[in-house]
Amino acid sequence: MNLLDLRAKYPGLFYSQSWFLDEPFMRALPNETRHVPPDSITAMGEVPKNAKGLWLAVDLAHAYVKRPADPIWRNKLWCRDTDRDGQRVYLTDNGKGLEVHRHLHITESFGVPTWA
Asked: Which residues pair with 13 in a beta bridge?
C-alpha cells in the first residue's frame, strides 16, 4: 500500500493534511519488508546532505501503523523522499496522528513584504 492507501485504511492514525496529496512520493510503493519502527536515531539536529540510509516515507508510515505508540514517532524523522521542489520530507507524530512535513530550504525567492 502507498501512503494514500494507508491514510484511507487508517484515517484515525494520520493527522488531517492535504498539501501532499498530488506529490509523487504519496504513490510510492514500500521497499522495506519488515516495517518495524527504527531502534534509534542518529544525527539529531542535522539536515541530511543526501538520502543515503534514509527510509521512504511510505516505509516509515507502514511501521507507524503497526506501532503508533512507539516513542520514536515523537521525533522528526527524515525520509528519502522529497516534494516536487526538492524539499526533504519528514514524519512526526504530533499527538493527533502522523504528520507529513517538508523542510523548506531558504532561497532567494523568500522575502519580507513591506508597504510604503
From this structure: none
For the full predicted model, state whether its pTM sits above 0.70: yes
The confidence band for 70, taking pLDDT boundaries of 50, 70 and 90, is very high
Q: Which three cell numbers stand for residue 22?
A: 498530488
- Tell me which residue of 36, 16, 35 sits closest to 100, measured CA to CA: 16
Strand partners, 82: 88
Q: Check: CB of residue 29 under 8 Å from CB of residue 2.
A: yes
Tell me the three cell numbers of residue 54: 534514509
67, 53 in Cβ contact below 8 A?
A: no
**Of 32 and 8, more confident:** 8
> At residue 101, what are phi and psi to the nearest 5 degrees?
-125, 170
Q: What is the pLDDT of residues 43-64, one digit of tens each?
A: 888 888 888 889 999 999 999 9
Helix (H, G, I), strand (E, B) or coil at 48: coil
**Domain locations along the chain:** 3-102
- What are 41's three cell numbers? 536515531
d(CA 64, CA 93): 9
